[in-house]
Amino acid sequence: YIVALNLLSRSPTWLRSLHALPMYLGLDLRGGVHFLMQVDMKAALTKRADALTGDIRSLLRDKNLRHAGIAREGQTLRIRFRDAATRDKAAAAIADSQPILTLDRRDDGQDQLLVATLKPDALKKEQDLAIKQNIVTLNRRVNQLGVAEPVIQQQGADRIVVQLPGVQDTARAKDILGRTATLEVRLVDEEAMRSGSSFNVDIFPERKRDGSV
Fold first, then answer.
1. Which are the contacts of 102, defined by CB distance < 8 A and separation ≥ 6?
2. Hey, how many other C-beta atoms are within 10 angstroms of the C-beta on 168?
3. Distance (Å, rounded) from C-alpha 205 to C-alpha 39?
């Protein structure tokens, strides 16, 4: 009898006072769609490494520490210097600015190198952040479908389960949930733009509302 009342859309006051909530019907009772999505951790960590590359390049420029190039290999950054003294000063500056990085000093016979990688705890935080950001994005997209009581939760290290009770248009749900959205923030090197230099410069024209550049 109590369970039957609890299925009503408007439960009695006395039943709500007992913190009794409506019984939600899952996929087994209402039907719907079930998605198991995997987060591209490699892409997420690569973008983080790209951002760190820009941050380190700006830091070394501000500190007036000359380097012979910064290259990303996977999620590893390799910073070249002509002499060990400059490399050591750069290592101190980077360690102070980016404590999430492990810095290894190496010598390849030609240049002095700093090899930077994310520390294990920082790597775990980046992976957790990637999962959380994707869950937030999926929640926003599910709202477009108007689904009541959806289930969106992490499963394992890099997967997200999405259950949409009552949804019948599987193709539309897949299209909305599977859309790719990318946002990149880049620093503008105004000096290089003024000088017309094309060395290591990406140009992103600013488009006006009428479509002109």
1. 116, 117, 118, 119
2. 10
3. 31
Task: Give the 3-state secondary structure of residue 136.
Answer: helix
Buried b (16+ CB within 10 A) or exposed e, 65-103: bebeebeeeebebbbbbeeeebbeebbebbeebbebbeb
What's 58-122 look like in SS3? HHHHHCCCCCCEEEEECCEEEEEECCHHHHHHHHHHHHHHCCCEEEEEEECCCCEEEEEEECHHH
Specify the DSSP class assigned to residue 151.
E
31 neighbors 170 (Cβ within 8 angstroms): no
pLDDT in tens, 25-77: 544 445 567 778 888 899 889 999 999 999 999 999 999 999 999 999 989 99
Query: Looking at the DSSP assignment, which residues form a beta bridge with residue 86?
Result: none
At 155, the amino acid letter reads: Q
Q: What is the pTM of this model?
A: 0.61
pLDDT in tens, 154-187: 888 888 888 877 776 777 777 777 765 444 444 5
